[in-house]
């Protein structure tokens, strides 16, 4: 094609229109950018897209005769999945296939005509998804998959328009859960009666405020017994110390000959994940199902804030103040009581 050559990149389409653009790789900023300011590149990309679309439709009609007019949901869903093979990665493709086979086909049936899908039927489908104890976020992803299939059918001319699709109301994400004194006592009593590696893991998360991966990566060489701190290596390989606290009385009885390698081990091998262990421990301790491993860190940061004020941000090892504030769980009853006694 004549004209100025485009830099190395890929051809993409706007989600709100039928226009195409060229996404290229910027060597200076080391990330993908969209050349939306240059109209010449947009026009060249649009011409390339038109030529590729013509070649694809001609090839598709030769290879897949009789499927150019997809009148049923099963044919449209399979054709949409074939289109997504070159655009989505394997995880998203597996998720789309699961949504289609596990939810769309059992409810609507493959023989359903696309013109019969109306807004009322799709709304009932959303209610059916909610009755299967799915999270609203997951149900909306399935509804979005159905919407993408219908939009693809409308662009291909198989249906005239896409019906109105109402999505479920998603619950607002809650920022953590702070354990009470009784819950902490029950959890620690269960951890003490469990294996040694489980007690060390709960102690690192609860008394030192460590994350799940940080606690598993602690080595004996990272513990400074004189300063009573633990050198924690974060994701960006930065060293942020954490207080040793009550973990000193747990780790100090270990013989010096055994103080090498990883602290949390099972049968001499380091642990990769403690999520299954956490499910068993919190059930034995009687904790709510919504309590996560990361909520132990929320409990640590909230208690340090009430004790030290904003200086607790140094112990929480947060880089931004917004992330630190999400970990603070104020006791509203005490705040109301202090406000009433202020004047």
Can you walk me through this structure?
- The chain has 343 residues and is mainly α.
- The chain has three domains: 9-62, no CATH class; 73-155, DNA polymerase, domain 1 (Orthogonal Bundle), CATH 1.10.150; 181-339, hpI Integrase, Chain A.
- It has 14 helices and eight strands.
- The protein has helices spanning 39-63, 73-84, 90-108, 119-131, 136-155, 181-192, 196-207, 212-216, 247-251, 275-285, 294-308, 312-316, 321-325, 332-340, and strands at residues 9-13, 20-26, 31-34, 223-224, 229-233, 239-243, 265-266, 269-270.
- A three-stranded antiparallel beta sheet has the order 1-2-3.
- Helix 2 (73-84) packs antiparallel against helix 3 (90-108), helix 6 (181-192) packs across helix 10 and helix 7 packs across helix 11 (294-308).
- It starts with 8 loop residues before the first strand and ends with a helix.
Spans where pLDDT lies below 50 across 5 or more residues: 25-37, 59-69
- Main CATH class of the largest domain: Mainly Alpha
Largest sheet: 3 strands, antiparallel
Count of helical regions = 14
CATH architecture of the largest domain: Orthogonal Bundle
Radius of gyration: 28 Å
Share in helix: 40-55%
Mean pLDDT: 78
Measured distance between first and last alpha carbons: 79 Å
Per DSSP, what share of the residues sits in E-state strands of 2 or more residues?
5-15%
Strand order of the largest sheet: 1-2-3
Multimeric state: single chain
């Amino acid at each position: 094609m004549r004209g100025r050559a485009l830099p190395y990149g890929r051809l993409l389409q706007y989600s709100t229109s039928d226009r195409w653009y060229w996404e290229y790789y910027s060597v200076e900023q080391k990330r993908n950018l969209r050349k939306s300011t240059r109209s010449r590149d947009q026009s060249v990309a649009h011409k390339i897209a038109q030529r590729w679309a013509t070649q694809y439709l001609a090839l598709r009609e030769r290879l897949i005769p009789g499927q150019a007019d997809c009148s049923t949901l099963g044919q449209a869903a399979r054709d949409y999945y074939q289109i997504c093979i070159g655009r989505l990665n394997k995880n998203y493709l597996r998720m789309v296939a699961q949504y289609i086979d596990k939810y769309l086909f059992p409810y609507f049936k493959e023989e359903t005509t696309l013109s019969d899908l109306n807004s009322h039927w799709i709304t009932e489908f959303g209610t059916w998804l909610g009755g299967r104890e799915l999270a609203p976020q997951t149900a909306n992803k399935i509804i979005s998959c159905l919407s993408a299939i219908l939009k693809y059918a409308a662009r291909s001319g198989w249906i005239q328009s896409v019906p109105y699709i109402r999505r479920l109301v998603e619950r607002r994400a809650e920022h953590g859960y702070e354990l009470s004194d009784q819950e902490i006592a029950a959890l620690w009593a269960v951890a003490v009666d469990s294996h040694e590696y489980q007690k060390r893991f709960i102690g690192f998360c609860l008394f030192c405020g460590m994350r799940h991966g940080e606690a598993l990566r602690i080595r004996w060489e990272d513990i400074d017994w004189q300063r009573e701190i633990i050198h924690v290596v974060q994701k960006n390989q930065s060293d942020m110390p954490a207080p040793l606290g009550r973990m000193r009385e747990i780790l100090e009885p270990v013989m010096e000959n055994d103080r090498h390698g990883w602290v949390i081990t099972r049968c001499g091998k380091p642990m990769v994940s403690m999520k299954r262990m956490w499910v068993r421990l919190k059930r034995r301790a009687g904790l709510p199902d919504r309590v996560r491993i990361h909520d132990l860190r929320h409990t640590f940061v909230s208690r340090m804030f009430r004790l030290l004020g904003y200086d607790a941000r140094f112990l929480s090892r947060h880089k931004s103040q917004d992330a630190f504030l999400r970990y603070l769980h104020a006791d509203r009853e005490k705040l109301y009581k202090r406000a009433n006694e202020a004047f």
